[in-house]
Amino acid sequence: MRWSFYFWYTSKDDPADAEAPSHKYLLKGGFIKQVASGIYAFTPPGYRVIRKIENIIRKEMERSGAQEVLLTVLNPAELWKETGRWELYGRELFTLKDRHGREYCLGPTHEEEITDLVRSFVNSYRQLPFILYQIQVKFRDEKRPRFGLIRGREFIMKDAYSFDTDEFSAMMSYETMRFAYERIFKKLRLNTLMVEASVGAIGGISSHEFVILTDYGEAKVAYCLSCGYSANAEIVKLPLGKQQEEEEKSLQKVYTPNAETIEELSQFLKVPKSKILKAVLYIAQGEPVMVMIKGDREVDENKLAQVIGTENFRLATDEEVYRLFGTQKGFIGPFNVPPSVKVLWDNSTFGIKNAVIAFNEPDYHYINANPERDFSYGDFFDLAQVTEGDPCPKCASPLKVSKGLELGHIFLLGTRYSVPMKAYYKDQQGEDKPLFMGCYGIGISRCMSAIVEQYHDEFGIKWPTVVAPFELDIICLNPSDQEQKSTAEKLYMMAQELGLDVIYDDREASAGFKFADADLCGFPYRIIVGKKVKEGKVELHNRHTGEKTDVPVESAIQVVKELIDKDKV
RNA sequence: CGGGGUGUAGCUCAGGUGGCAGAGCGCUGGCUUUGGGAGCCAGAAGUCGCAGGUUCAAGUCCUGCCACCCCGACCA
């Protein structure tokens, strides 16, 4: 490709609205163009990267026996009504009507449609198992699109679905996909972590996420360096607190005006937050629920949802707190609690000694409160967010906690879709049985961002060779110099002949301009044709190592080809 | 959906207390340049997010709306 003819335009200024490195460099480097919030178009070089990622995924999917299909973007509402998801999916579903008033959605995922496809062809156990997959655009009206391609409302996804006779067979499909995913992320040069994930409201059986550790992700992952355990933080179980060995001091009532927050209380009383018992009031489906938890911990609302069996809850308002307890937030506690209030004790509160606690008296707290003597526990639950240093559920070593970005998710679904959609097969006894399903997703456009997050420096992107828009950039420093120009042209022809993905920067621009673009756009290799052509030499530059070497013109392309071939192994 | 912020040339931004619409980059033409985003000269380029209001006068003040970004709760 000759750059002077290529539709690729970079910017000298940092884009105003981009924070995450991937968002910034993809915009600045002219790989993507924002169309609306969470909606991006890909330019020719941007789409080249996407296609390379897709092809790596395709190859590994095919290798594991999955077969590619292409389902539709426009999904009729009827299918979604069969599984109840027309309502359940809620406002994230983009919906529309045709001229006859019939309802459709833009597919956010394709369990319904794939199940519909499969039930129309599969009748017998003899046809099972199999895995189908597609690469397609998905639409989700996200509450908050973020960080460029990282969370878009329109995005490219690979989604696969497995169909088996029973759970055991489905586990095999699941394992097949798990291994495929491990290979895919390795080939994409992404350093992912496989974490156990919540099976969530769908009631699946097993679920794993593939995440990279980055500040620009929204999942919280906990992992253990000594035994290798890793999981989405929301499913990490925390044990009952240890019995503290401390002399019980006498209970004392202390005037603590305006100490509404744990922070204020801790400073006012000069007591560590871990010595404070905090009461957090939620309203769940209209009913008050009080969570007692240690002051240095936060409630994990995913865990709370599991315990109370609904996701329909929120923090109580100041008025509600006052109406129930006759005092404001910060002064409520597990004493004389109205019978309508359900009290849940977090595991962390067990065994505390000489704690600070409020007993629903305005402007007063009690210090040196002790369980049994001054208050009594109720039932214990695991409700706290995991924090760094908490014990690993497997080996009890201190856990590490990081933000993670989810790139892939594999899920053993069971019969969640096949039963309501009547996707049955006849078993050997001639009986109808529901298909046993699994689903497996990879966010392809998100992977593009993830790669940039893992491979960049202050000058721009450093694409791994396997996904680089071009593997080699040939820069002719001074196109008006005939010798330089003809050398560059010759090298460009040779590179094309050897089948390299090469871009030839023949633009009329200063050297610095071309170097800056080369850095920003992230070509793994660069050949610079400059003054040294007089000595029969060009410079070879490696974007990843920063290494520069002079090589003879005749062998330059061969040298690069060998390096590229090595990178692709 | 709650909280915060931004909206002026293609891009990045400046425009106290209301008084002629600005800069840098980019773009067009010309000359000179070519190893780290070149120099000089000459130009083109605007519904100041939208609507209403206050005022002799609004980019600037007021009201409403919209869009986008960031922080929190959900998803690949």
Q: How many E strands? A: 31
Radius of gyration: 30 Å
Can you tell me the CATH topology of the largest domain?
A: BirA Bifunctional Protein, domain 2
Taken as a percent bin, the fraction of beta residues is: 25-35%
> How far apart are the termini?
25 Å
Question: What is the 3D shape?
Answer: globular
Largest sheet: 9 strands, mixed
The structural class is: alpha+beta
Supply the CATH class of the largest domain: Alpha Beta
Tally of individual helices: 13
- Which whole number gives the mean pLDDT? 92
CATH superfamily of the largest domain: Bira Bifunctional Protein, Domain 2
As a percent range, the share of helical residues equals 25-40%
The total tally of domains equals 3
- Uncertain stretches of 5 or more adjacent residues: none
Q: Which architecture of the largest domain does the CATH hierarchy give at level 2?
A: 2-Layer Sandwich
